[in-house]
Amino acid sequence: MLKQKFYWLFLIVLLLLGLYYFWDWYSAEYESAQVEVVFTPFKRVAMDRLLETIRKAEKSIDVAMFWLTDPEIMEALAKQAKNGVSVRIIIDENTVAERRFFDRFDKMVKEGVKVFIEKEPGKLHLKCAIIDNKLLITGSANWSSYGFLMNLEDVLFIQSRKIVNSYKNKWNWLYKKAKPWVREEIANRLVYSRTNPGVDPNIDYSRIMGGTEREWSGEIQEKFSIIAKDIESYYTPSRDGQLSSGVGMLVKDIEQSVREIKAAMYYVMDGDVINKLVEAAKRGVEVKVVISEKMLRGPVSKILEMLERNGIKVYLPPLDGGTQQGSMHLKCMTIDDRIVWTGSANWTLNAKELNIEDYIRIENEALAKFYSNYFNALLKISPEYKTTASNR
Description:
By secondary structure, the chain is α+β, with helices and mostly antiparallel strands. Helices cover 39% and strands 23% of the residues. α2 (45-56) packs parallel to α3 (71-82) and α10 (245-255) packs parallel to α11.
């Protein structure tokens, strides 16, 4: 009789535990997300928002980043580690190997920041951080002075248990394979280097892009917050070698477009995406793509000609990626003023099959219109690309 009572008590406990975990999963899966988007480089708005978030962290900051070099950001991370916050950074091997940043990483490590190196066939191209296991920061911007003070970027601050848990699982997967950063080991390897100079803090780079900031921005908001019910995250490469579900979903959204597609993309080289954009244009969807200056260089410029021949309008913002201007570094798209795609991934084969990237898909009309207004303002200062043949 006693055994039978314990048996039923055991079953009841299991049932209650099952219900608890089911409700925890269900509520996280279907709860609304708080999403804030900030565009750069407007008056340090994005930079100040990021620094504020870092400084308010109470327990933990877990970062996965392709390029982390900005001194203000690194100092804020080091100070939080010194104050007892767990700060862990996973960074791409080639990026951390630039000698001129060794001292900054040394300082962070001495203050208690744990820095790890990710070695993969492709790049660790994420630009994300998880704050206190409650808030996700992601988008197109590397944590560099160029990313926040010169380039055209978007930075997303997302409060959603489902999305945060998804990124945390991805971060943990990377952490298991990462190796601690050791200055001597990195210094003995072939060092990656690039020649971009530092950013002049006295220049408002948003003013370079088409006169006054008001003329450039078209009086758009530089930041916007919404409550979103339909938000998903995806990653590449897929672990089973199959087409990433994110790329598959993105292609499906393009296939189902009805009226308009607007995209701002640093690189456009993925045949799957390009073919679907062309198909959309041929069935009457208005397709506009803002491309970075990088696409004008070398054989990839042929892609621009092909897009234009097939009815896709291509625009080039007045940015050269050089010493006085940043780059159009966005990787985002709106579809029918209803769906927003953004994240770290360019439309390239490497992003799809080799790199570690993220995609965020948000179905929300208010957010889509916010991005669409930004695109419209960008189009006003961006000449339309025309091939020599089309100008005859």
